[in-house]
Amino acid sequence: MNNKKPRERNKLRLLERKAIKAAKLRGHNMSRPEPRGKKGMMRSYSYCRTCAMTMMMDEHPQPNGISIGGEALALNCKEG
Ligand SMILES: [Zn+2]
Questions:
Q1: Has residue 6 got a pLDDT over 70?
Q2: Predicted confidence (pLDDT) per residue in 39-76, tens digit
Q3: Ion ligand 1 — residues with CB < 5 Å
Q4: Rounded Cα–Cα distance for residues 72 and 70 (Å)
Q5: Torsion 30-34-37-39 (CA) sign
Q6: How does residue 7 score in pLDDT terms, banded at 50, 70 and 90?
Q7: How close is the Cα of 61 to the center of ligand 1, in Å?
Q8: Domain parsing of the chain, residue ranges
Q9: What is the 22 CA–ligand 1 centroid distance (Å)?
Q10: Cα dist. 19→5, 48, 80 in Å?
């Protein structure tokens, strides 16, 4: 069993990797995620270089919120 808690920064990194992978499957060419916010409440934002759709990664979402979201994760890339 792994009882080690991941560091907050690593948690956001993990979300970023997950989200970019998911967006890539939809054909997007995502920008490097840009972290914003306070320590422990960080969010990363990224956009598609092709269609400009965005996505957001939240390391500390509301209880009923989501940690990753955005249209880039819900819709396929509109290339051309
Ligand atoms: Zn796109």
A1: no
A2: 878 999 999 999 999 999 999 898 888 899 999 999 99
A3: 28, 48, 50-51, 77
A4: 5
A5: positive
A6: low
A7: 25
A8: 29-80
A9: 12
A10: 21, 12, 23
